[in-house]
Amino acid sequence: MKPIAKSSKLANVGYDIRGPVLDKARQMEEEGHKIIKLNIGNVAAFGLEPPDEIVQDMIRNLPNAAGYTDSKGLFAPRKAVVHYCQEKKIAGVTVDDVYLGNGASELISMSMNALLDSGDEVLIPSPDYPLYTAVVSLSGGTPVHYHCDEGSGWLPDLADMRAKITPRTKALVLINPNNPTGALYPDEILQGMVEIARQHELVIFSDEIYDKTLYDGATHTSIASLADDVLFLTFNGLSKNYRSCGYRAGWMVVSGNKKRAQDYIEGLNMLASMRLCANTPGQLAIQTALGGYQSIKDLVAPGGRLARQRDLAYELLTQIPGVSVVKPKAALYMFPRLDPKLYPIADDQQFAYELLAEEKVLIVQGTGFNWNAPDHFRVVFLPNTDDLTEAVGRIARFLDGYRKRHSA
Questions:
Q1: Residue 306 to residues 219, 316, 326, 380: CA-CA distances in angstroms?
Q2: Given phi > 0 = left and psi -120 to 50 = alpha, else beta, which region is 217?
Q3: DSSP string computed for 222-281
Q4: What is the pTM of this model?
Q5: Which of 155, 154, 157 minimizes the C-alpha distance to 146?
Q6: How far apart are alpha carbons 211 and 191 in whole angstroms?
Q7: Residues 357-378: pLDDT tens digits?
Q8: What is the rounded CA–CA span in Å between residue 17 and residue 40?
Q9: Are the C-beta atoms of 41 and 243 separated by less than 8 Å?
C-alpha cells in the first residue's frame, strides 16, 4: 500500500525542545533510567506552583465555565489585560484590541497565519524560540534570521537586521526577555528596532512572556510603549510569571497604528472566531493573576529561589574548562558556549544524545534554536539547588571525558 506521508509544509519545521533527543529520553525512562531534564521551562515539574488564589478562583468558577465565550475571550480578563497595558505604558489599548488564547503559542500562530502570503519574509532572532521559525514556515512565509551578538550580551545586531530586509519583509520578531539566552533589551536597542520597523513599514511581534522574571533589580520596557505610528502585536500570558503552563492562558494585544491594519485585524478576528474561543477555565485565572500579589518578585529577588538557582548554575557552568556563559538578566535559561578548540563538535544533536546516554542529563542543542554553529546548548535552571548541582556536575564529568577523548 502507498504510505501516508506528512505534509510538505512540515519540511522546514522543527521543535527540538520536544524533539528526537526527548524521544530517546522517554525510551530510557521506560527502561528504568532516571533522567535529569534541563530541556524545557515546565515550571510546575520543578515544584514551582501557581499562586493559590489563582487555583481557588478557577475552582470556584469551574461550574460556570462549560460554555463558549466570545471568540476574543471573556470581558473581565481582557479588561485586566487593558489595565496591565496601561501599567506598561502601552497607549490606546481597548478591550477590543485584546485576544485571549490557549497560551501565547496559539496566538502567535494565528497572527502569522493572518499576515503572511507565500514567500513573505519575517525577521526572527538567532538564536530564537523555535516556534517562530516553525509557524512562519507553516504560514507560507520565509524565516530570515538576524544575528544576536553574544559579545554584547546577546543583544540584536541592528546593522545585520537592516541588511536582511528585502521588499518581501513583512514583520520583525523580538523575544524580550529572551529565550534561550536570558538577555533583556535596553531602551536604545528597542528604539532602534522601532525605527527600522518605521522606515520599512514592518509589523513588530513582541514576545514578553518573561516580563516579570527579572533579576538584579532590572526593569522591562514593552516596545509597544515607545511609538504609536508602528503596528505592534504583544504576546504574554500566565505560563511563566505565574507558573501556570498547563492552564494555557495567554493574550495578544494589538496596538499602535491600527488604522492602516484594519484588513489584517479583520483576518485576526476571522481566525479567532474559527477556533471558537480559548479555554474558559484558563481565561478565568487571568484577572486574579494580574490583580493579585505578584509572588514572582519573591522568586527573582536576591536570595529568592530562581535568583539562587541562576547564580548557582552560572557559577558551576563557568568553572568548567572551555565553557563560557552570558549571565542571564531575565527568564529561566542559559545558553552556554563550548570552545570549539576544546570541544570540536560536528553534530550538536549527536552531542546531546551522547550526554543523555552517558550521564542521563537532557539538554537542547543550540542548533535547535536556529543558532548557526554546533557550539552552544540551552539549559533551564529550574531544578532545586541540589538537583542543579548534580546535573551540572554530570555535564562537567561528560565534558571532561569529551576533552580527553578528542585531545587524544
A1: 17, 15, 17, 11
A2: left
A3: -GGGG-SSSEEEEEEESTTTTT-GGG-EEEEEEEE--GGGHHHHHHHHHHHHHT----HH
A4: 0.94
A5: 157
A6: 18
A7: 999 999 999 999 999 999 999 9
A8: 7
A9: no
